[in-house]
From TrEMBL:
GO biological process: negative regulation of signal transduction
Protein name per UniProt: Regulator of G protein signaling 19
Keyword Protein biosynthesis: no
UniProt source species: Cavia porcellus
Cited Pfam families: RGS
Stretches for region Disordered: 1-29
Keyword Lyase recorded: no
Superkingdom to which the source organism belongs: Eukaryota
């Protein structure tokens, strides 16, 4: 005949078998599957995780050298008088001209809005990339430099475009910023371009160069 303790064990045994095993202090919860980026899904520059810092250090040098200075072809080739005159015909002609972009960017710098051209150029460069790893890194840098509200070079984008970028940044592509690039292009066209055409900078380029008089 079973003792009272044995009877209690027999009675509670099936119930204990139905219960999930308790987690001891040495057990750990199952880890979720790693996401594409090891830190988080935050794409703003406030993320201070080691992954973000390491990647930013790695790409900072190439980013500064590729996105910040004016390309040499836009600096060294002086525009012809005919080309300068064509810039007044349409904003598209100005932006399709390397010399035109260079002069217009210098004008934007005087208006403290050079970041608009820098952002547009960065988007153009991004669209030429085919390597997904490079696309991911450049997209993050563009976001941090021109889209993040914490950046001193933040460009003016409406909430709809910003929300679209935030969604696309989960899986960046070469065309993640297309809507934003078009919005900034339109802003420069409507706001800065008319002032550029009436600026001393542009008018000076329209004046023919005076031939240097030879000394007797």
């Amino acid at each position: 005949m079973p003792t009272p303790n044995e009877a209690e064990k027999q009675h509670t045994g099936p119930e204990e078998a139905d219960r999930p095993p308790s987690m001891s202090s040495h057990d750990t919860a199952p880890r979720p599957a790693p996401s594409r980026n090891p830190c988080c899904l935050c794409w703003c520059c406030c993320c201070s995780c080691s992954w973000n810092q390491e990647r930013r250090r790695t790409w900072k040098a190439s980013h500064d050298s590729k996105l910040q200075p004016l390309p040499s072809c836009e600096v060294c080739t002086p525009p012809s008088p005919e080309e300068v005159q064509s810039w007044a015909q349409s904003f598209d002609k100005l932006m399709h001209s390397p010399a035109g972009r260079s002069v217009f960017r210098a004008f934007l710098r005087t208006e403290y809005s050079e970041e608009n051209m820098l952002f547009w150029l960065a988007c153009e460069e991004l669209k030429t990339e085919a390597n997904q790893h490079v696309v991911d890194e450049k997209a993050r840098l563009i976001y941090e430099d021109y889209v993040s509200i914490l950046s001193p070079k933040e460009v003016s984008l409406d909430s709809r475009v910003r929300e679209g970028i935030n969604r696309k940044m989960q899986e960046p592509s070469a065309h993640t910023f297309d809507d934003a690039q078009l919005q900034i292009y339109t802003l420069m066209h409507r706001d800065s371009y008319p002032r550029f055409l009436s600026s001393p900078t542009y008018r000076a380029l329209l004046l023919p160069e005076r031939p240097q008089s030879s000394e007797a």
